[in-house]
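Hello everyone,

My group is preparing for a crystallization screen and wants a predicted model to guide construct design. The compound we'll soak is LTUXU72L. Before spending weeks at the bench, it would help to have a computed complex in hand. I've included the protein sequence and the ligand's SMILES below. Output in structure-token form would be ideal because that's what our pipeline reads.
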Amino acid sequence: MKLLIKDVTIVTMLDDDQPFRGDILIEDDKIKEISSQVQEQADKVIQGNGKVAMPGLINAHQHTPMSLLKGFSDDLKLMDWLDKKMLPAENNMTPEDIYWGCKLSMAEMIKSGTTAFADMYVHMNEIAQAIEEVGMRASLTRGLVFFEDDKGRRLREAMELIDQWHGAADGRITTMFGPHAPYTCPPEPLKEVIRLAEDKKLPIHIHLAETKEEIVKIRDKYNQTPTEYLYNLGLFEKSHVLLAHAVHLTRKDISYLVGMRGGVAHNPVSNLKLGCGIAPIVEMLQRGINVGLGTDGAGSATTLDMFEEIKTATWLQKLDYGDPTQIPAKKAIQLATKNSAILLNIDKEVGTLEVGKKADLILIDINKPHLMPHHNIESLIAYSVNGGDVDTTIVNGKILMENRQLLTINEEELLQQAAVRAKRIVEGI
Ligand SMILES: CSC[C@H]1O[C@@H](n2cnc3c(O)ncnc32)[C@H](O)[C@@H]1O
Ligand SMILES: [Zn+2]
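Reply:
Good plan to model first. Here are the tokens for the complex, ready for your pipeline.
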């Protein structure tokens, strides 16, 4: 199957490239040619005039089923929000709810230009099934909390996820280990997870230093910062690690992360909304630590539009430094594309538009009043585009949305299922 996108403005996201006009030829799941004019015939042609083609956005930290909890509980401190609202609601969720919640998030992500995401949750079988059907790319972790003795059930489920789904769905699904956070993972089980991850050569996805309360909790318990706690357990030694948040880091904490594989998923909208703080991403980037972008679950972020994260990430640093030159437009977009791809350990396949890479890309309609004129395409993407401007979303060479119509999700059925299930889940909480 050959798909040709003709006469489009191409933004590859490679450091040395500027936006240029040309054609993109996709054969099966890969980009076969990018040039000023492709000569080959294709089975389907999309006219790209008035559109920008760019790599699909990659949401590096998500809890997809939490879309069913969006708007249920806002304006609370993180620990109250989590303990008093989210966890009781999550206890009411059935595996089927999780399937539909994940689908609801995917519908929103596809409609706002996201092609891949990292997910941490429970009932991962249902999540993987939904992803297999819908066609997105994802890195999945079974979230692990070690509050009480569960006789190894959670860890067993994590291993089952890895055994059944790593490399599945034509390679679109990969897996990681997912110890939830320093405050939910004591040293012994955490060491066991680190050992297993090294053994299986799989990455680890974990929350880190999201709130000041976390800093106090870990200091009271272990007399260390959360980052020191993970460092001293050997987390950064061998495995690729995806750290979600990393808001409260000392200079010394940042130095522990230098040289790590993976990096930090910055979630600026969630951090702002929960009043957590501003992650020191400029310092991290200056010290060579990879920083990508995520939304966190819709239960906190309330929207999964990665264009909002791009804007917020750059504006926060400009404000914090009192310096508008911080995180310029192209860097901001790279956070959500090539840098997030590194976090998911899929940067050899996706994250930039290059011949031989997987065809994960989006077309943005820039022929609109709020996107006119076109002085600087990268500025337009970083500062003016929003998710609703995405016209077409392609993953692994397959069109998941065209002319804003979802092609692999029955939207009417999804909305009906989501409304009924969401109402039931929060009843009585
Ligand atoms: C055990 S599955 C994942 C677990 O994480 C919870 N969660 C969602 N958002 C956050 C956040 O910002 N910080 C910490 N934990 C979070 C979610 O409710 C699931 O229970
Ligand atoms: Zn999270």
